[in-house]
Specification:
- With about 325 residues, the protein is an all-alpha fold.
- Among the domains are: about 125-210, no CATH class; about 215-300, no CATH class.
- Helices cover about 70% and strands about 0% of the residues.
- A two-stranded parallel ribbon has the order 1-2.
- The radius of gyration is 53 Å and the shape is elongated.
- This is Retrotransposon gag domain-containing protein.
Length: about 325
């Protein structure tokens, strides 16, 4: 019975005795028991678990590395700030250059022409001095040649004056002509035949031989002029344009004042009678505005009785 009580007491006190022995052993070995869950004991507990405090030399190496990183970041920041200042200055300069007003249209055209001249000079054919074209910019003083609209004799005479004033040779003359050739027919003639002519005179004569109207074309234009009539309600400007175009074909190389009598023959009777009762006009350029004024006055009057009867009869015939 006594032995049973002793064994039970020993069994009951054995776990508590082991715990007290462990605490006593830790205290005797110089280490304190620390609860790592407490913030105040976390660092010391970590040191105990890792086997002791960190090496001062290793800490110094880490400190030096961090300082080097900070210095590098400071240098990068300074470089970025310097680059930002440079970009800001460039932006300010660009805005100052754009601030003045844009050049006027003539100035822009002149700049474009200069650029075109420089481009053409880089691709200029042999024996062509493109610098001569800077002093002789024919584009600003004459129009391009249009077959059927321009008198070839008059146009070529003006063109040749510009060529001689610019002291151009035959190749430079051809280059200049290409800039003023308009229409497929003119360009094809230039591309196929220009290389044959070795002098300016030969080139000029070849142009006139090609684009002067033939005898058949002149006779056809004369017939069309005889049939051309301005009506009291007609468009005067369109009538003048058609008349002058047919005159260029019917009578090439004619003087402008020689057009006055043929033009008076294209007017309707009342207008022709009114203009012929006035003092004779000596210049075609002054005759046209006067005829236009009288034509407008006739339109304001309206058709006369005989004209109204003729219109009524024509309308009746149309109904039938």
């Amino acid at each position: 019975m006594l032995n049973k009580l002793v064994s039970r007491a020993f069994f009951f006190w054995r776990p508590h005795w082991c715990l007290l022995a462990a605490i006593s052993s830790a205290t005797c070995s110089g280490r304190r028991y620390l609860n790592p869950a407490l913030p105040a004991n976390a660092e010391e507990a970590e040191q105990q678990m890792s086997g002791g405090p960190p090496d001062p030399a290793a800490l110094q190496v880490q400190i030096d590395a961090l300082q080097a990183q900070l210095q590098q970041r400071d240098a990068d920041l300074a470089a970025a700030q310097q680059a930002q200042q440079l970009l800001t200055q460039q932006l300010a300069q660009a805005q100052q250059q754009q601030a003045p007003q844009a050049p006027q249209a003539p100035q822009r055209r002149q700049q474009q022409q200069q650029q075109a001249g420089q481009h053409g000079q880089a691709q200029a054919p042999p024996n062509v001095d493109m610098t001569k074209f800077k002093a002789l910019d024919v584009r600003r003083v004459m129009e391009s040649f249009k077959k059927g609209e321009d008198d070839p004799v008059v146009w070529m005479s003006i063109f040749m004056k510009k060529v001689r004033n610019g002291n151009l040779n035959v190749k430079e003359c051809k280059v200049l002509f290409e800039r003023h050739a308009e229409g497929v027919e003119v360009r094809e003639w230039m591309a196929k035949n220009a290389h044959q002519y070795t002098t300016i005179e030969a080139f000029e004569q070849a142009f006139l031989d090609r684009f002067m109207p033939t005898e058949a074309e002149s006779q056809q234009a004369m017939y069309e002029l005889s049939q051309l009539k301005l009506s009291p309600t007609g468009d005067f400007d369109a009538h003048v344009k058609v008349f002058e175009a047919k005159m260029r074909v019917a009578q090439p190389e004619h003087e402008i004042n020689a057009c006055m009598l043929p033009f008076l023959g294209t007017l309707y009777p009342s207008l022709s009678m009114e203009i012929t009762t006035e003092p004779a006009h000596k210049e075609y350029a002054k005759l046209i505005p006067r005829v236009l004024f009288l034509h407008q006055q006739e339109q304001k009057k309206g058709p006369n009785p005989s004209a109204r009867m003729a219109l009524a009869a024509k309308s009746a015939n149309d109904v039938k």
